[in-house]
Amino acid sequence: MPTIVVDVMPKPELLDPQGKAVSGAFTRLGVEGFTAVRIGKRFELTVEGDVTDEVLAEARRIADEVLSNSVIEDVVGIEVAE
């Protein structure tokens, strides 16, 4: 069965406290070379049958209306993972 993967990230202009905490942990652990961390969400939607344009459109609608909070988050990717 195919899977549609939806990635949601906080809007770039908003603070990301979880990302800041991870970034701070990198510093404490001596990890170098990374200037920032942002943490988002990944959803995997299993599809019965083929992934058609209509199914992708419905996934986009669900991503925008249910899986993300449009005030503070952006849907940054929708892709089919076989």
Structure write-up:
- With 82 residues, this protein is of the alpha+beta class.
- Helices cover 33% and strands 28% of the residues.
- It is built from two helices and three strands, in the order E-H-E-H-E.
- A three-stranded antiparallel beta sheet has the order 2-1-3, covered by helices on one side.
In short:
This protein has 82 residues and is α+β, with helices and mostly antiparallel strands. The protein has 2 helices and 3 strands. Strands 2-1-3 form a 3-stranded antiparallel beta sheet, covered by helices on one side.
Question: How is the secondary structure organized here?
Answer:
Elements lengths: L2 E8 L6 H12 L12 E6 L6 H15 L5 E9 L1
Antiparallel strand pairs: 1-2, 1-3
- Binned, the helix content reads 25-40%
Averaged pLDDT: 96
Total number of beta strands: 3
How many DSSP H or I helices? Answer: 2
The backbone outline, from C-alpha atoms, is elongated
Q: Which regions have little confidence, pLDDT < 50, spanning 5+ residues?
A: none
Distance from first to last alpha carbon:
7 Å
Q: Which strands sit side by side, in order, in the main sheet?
A: 2-1-3
Quaternary state of the chains: single chain
Beta content comes to: 25-35%
Task: Encode the helix/strand succession as letters.
Answer: EHEHE
Structural class of the secondary structure composition?
alpha+beta
Largest sheet: 3 strands, antiparallel
Radius of gyration: 16 Å
